[in-house]
Amino acid sequence: MSTATHCPYCALQCAMHVEAGPDGQPAVRPADFPTNRGGLCRKGWSAAQLLHSPQRLVRPLVRTGGTGEFAETGWDEALDFVAGRMAGVREQHGPDAVAVFGSGGLTNEKSYLLGKFARLALGTSRIDYNGRFCMSSAAAAGIRAFGLDRGLGFPLPDVASAEVVLLAGANPAETMPPMMGHLSGPRLIVVDPRRSATAEFARERGGLHLAPRPGTDLALALGLLHSARAQDLLDGDYIGARTSGFDEAWKYAAAFWPERTEQVTGVPAHLVRAAARALGTARGAYVLTGRGAEQHATGTDTVSAWINLALALGLCGRAGSGYGCITGQGNGQGGREHGQKADQLPGYRRIDDPAARAHVAGVWGVDAGELPGPGPSAFELLDSLGTAAGPKALLLMGSNPAVSAPEAGRVRDRLSALDLLVTCDFVMSETAAMADVVLPVAQWAEETGTMTNLEGRLLRRRAVLDPPPGVRTDLEVISGLARRLGQPDQRFPAGADAVLAELGRASAGGGADYAGVSPQRLEAGEELFWPVPGPGAGTPRMFLEGFAHADGRARFAAVGHRGAAEEADAQFPLIATTGRLMGHYQSGAQTRRIGELAEAEPEACVEVHPDTGARAGLDDGGWARVVSRRGATLARVRYRAGARTDTVFLPFHYGGEQAANNLTNPVLDPVSRMPEFKVSAVRLERSDPPQDARAASSQNAGAAAPAAGAGAGRRGPARPAGG
Ligand SMILES: Nc1nc2c(c(=O)[nH]1)N[C@H]1C(S)=C(S)[C@@H](COP(=O)(O)OP(=O)(O)OC[C@H]3O[C@@H](n4cnc5c(=O)[nH]c(N)nc54)[C@H](O)[C@@H]3O)O[C@H]1N2
Ligand SMILES: Nc1nc2c(c(=O)[nH]1)N[C@H]1C(S)=C(S)[C@@H](COP(=O)(O)OP(=O)(O)OC[C@H]3O[C@@H](n4cnc5c(=O)[nH]c(N)nc54)[C@H](O)[C@@H]3O)O[C@H]1N2
Ligand code: SF4
Ligand SMILES: [Mo]
């Protein structure tokens, strides 16, 4: 056995072979591919370990009436129970009382079928997904500027030949290590409040590190635009021929001369000038944003300000330069196109557009009037669960919001208030542990499907092995539930290729057109970048002929700086920002269960400048309690001499009392509905080690997790099975 496929984790989707290792268990070998060029990070190398982990779920679990503990059950009983309860809730409270929460980790086929399931089998408008927490601000700003949004509008290897690359709030040295191979040639300008691994990489190679106070990127981007104009570096011909709205946008930049920019952001004026000069004089330059620029209540406007800079320098829609958002999850790109978003139908269509509704309803064989309208965004949806007017039941696929949602304590309360929580997962995540029903599903190497990576490139995920006995695929779960909810069999096929063919028809003519994508073409090794409307090659480089707005021009956005929702004050004198470590993925549900990863990063940490730590009475290597208005979290102190003294950093990969999201502020961006994960006002206190530190880290990677009884997290009355 040796099968070519792609990594289960991030959007770089590194190519790999899965084959039998020395112990006979599946193991990973990297493959050469344009994005990863034979590299993998340590998560990719160890990814196969979860396939045969003793912590793997292999039987449906339903909480029993008597004890409130999980009991193993058969698939028919479990699916009958779930469909029966969903139908009952809908009968009693109406279709919007059943909600669905999806994921940018799901294949294109799953994303599509899940959206269709919500709209048709449940008739609910209550569906959104974790991508809302990811790159929704960049997507909104991209649509605003270009008329259409694709993470990178060009193949990743293009950036290697640029002279300068500016990375705003992205730390690929930890979040996509093999990408650094493409970034070793260009001079890097890294915008990050922390001296991240990527900032170090830039400094070592003669690049620049600009360390703004979290939440002030918009001002910094305005300052760079101001300084570029002052140095006569703008591309006037391009602005005149290919864009509109420069004058209105400039009004906001006019006031941000470098010294003023320094006052607001903390970035020295000479660095603002130097960065503008480097970017503006480069032959070939890219501006790339990551979550650091995007996960703010001002995220959309902030990305718009970075795009304005790129437009003013004439970088977009040209070969050899550009703006891009580095998408995050494995299918962060495809997951945002096929209708699991509250306001969306397949093919990047809007659910409130009559023509889009008519097209998709036609493919689905229903009347457009049967399709529900737009629903609330991810956090608003989670925050309404179990309230008088909110959903009473939730089907969750591919997310662990008890750990990863903002103000997670509040979200856990809402999850507990549900009458029915159903999760599909392959491990007992913190959210699964709160569920009434847990359905054990297949993992990446056990199923077929397609993914769309950060470049908009279509990839084939191939089944290498059979799932363990008793495990079903997500598509089989959706299909089985739909049938039990009275849908005709052929409307919800469980075969990935059949779903892809239908997705192609549903997306045809939309922005993200997959009509020409087929398993045969992918198996034949064709390089396909969407839109792929037909048999042609697709679109590796977008907007070369014109932008997707009706007039073909890109639009400057008139955006001004405003501060974060929460400022530091006497009670909460520091800003906490959050993000990622190399060795864990997201909520950590998968990677905390892989021995070598859990051992390397067994517990939460907080990065603190030594002076700041000393002032709070902390010791390097000791424990701190980090407190915000919303809650507290425990983390081991890591002194970082290069850190800002007004800012601390926490990874969000841990649950319970070590969850960074106990602190975070769920204030939302008005356009994208993105929560402000990157700015919370906090204070630091010295703390004893957490009660669960030892137990948690040994249990994370340890042997068999108990199946029955694993759900101690769930409060509230027990529910009878089979009701
Ligand atoms: N190891 C690992 N890799 C991953 C993931 C993972 O969980 N672990 N997740 C994947 C996913 S889904 C995503 S979305 C990507 C995310 O990839 P990145 O965007 O690279 O990840 P983050 O660590 O969230 O944020 C990047 C940087 O933003 C900085 N930052 C914080 N506040 C601000 C600010 O106000 N302005 C600026 N300019 N920077 C700020 C942080 O210090 C951090 O270094 O990674 C993907 N890859
Ligand atoms: N404080 C803070 N919070 C953040 C962020 C931050 O930077 N700071 N980043 C946000 C971002 S960018 C993201 S993307 C989210 C991610 O956070 P989550 O949405 O929680 O993502 P994961 O931790 O990947 O959770 C995926 C869950 O689904 C399971 N799973 C994985 N693949 C599949 C599949 O194919 N099918 C099914 N049924 N299950 C699957 C996994 O085992 C795991 O339990 O977190 C957000 N939260
Ligand atoms: S960089 Fe991303 S895709 Fe590549 S091996 Fe690491 S987690 Fe997997
Ligand atoms: Mo993400």
Automatic annotation (TrEMBL):
<dbReference type="InterPro" id="IPR009010">
    <property type="entry name" value="Asp_de-COase-like_dom_sf"/>
</dbReference>
<keyword id="KW-0408">Iron</keyword>
<dbReference type="Pfam" id="PF04879">
    <property type="entry name" value="Molybdop_Fe4S4"/>
</dbReference>
<dbReference type="InterPro" id="IPR050123">
    <property type="entry name" value="Prok_molybdopt-oxidoreductase"/>
</dbReference>
<keyword id="KW-0411">Iron-sulfur</keyword>
<keyword id="KW-0479">Metal-binding</keyword>
<feature type="domain" description="4Fe-4S Mo/W bis-MGD-type">
    <location>
        <begin position="1"/>
        <end position="55"/>
    </location>
</feature>
<feature type="region of interest" description="Disordered">
    <location>
        <begin position="682"/>
        <end position="723"/>
    </location>
</feature>
<keyword id="KW-0004">4Fe-4S</keyword>
<dbReference type="Pfam" id="PF01568">
    <property type="entry name" value="Molydop_binding"/>
</dbReference>
<dbReference type="InterPro" id="IPR006657">
    <property type="entry name" value="MoPterin_dinucl-bd_dom"/>
</dbReference>
<dbReference type="InterPro" id="IPR006656">
    <property type="entry name" value="Mopterin_OxRdtase"/>
</dbReference>
<dbReference type="InterPro" id="IPR006963">
    <property type="entry name" value="Mopterin_OxRdtase_4Fe-4S_dom"/>
</dbReference>
<dbReference type="Pfam" id="PF00384">
    <property type="entry name" value="Molybdopterin"/>
</dbReference>
<protein>
    <submittedName>
        <fullName>Molybdopterin oxidoreductase family protein</fullName>
    </submittedName>
</protein>
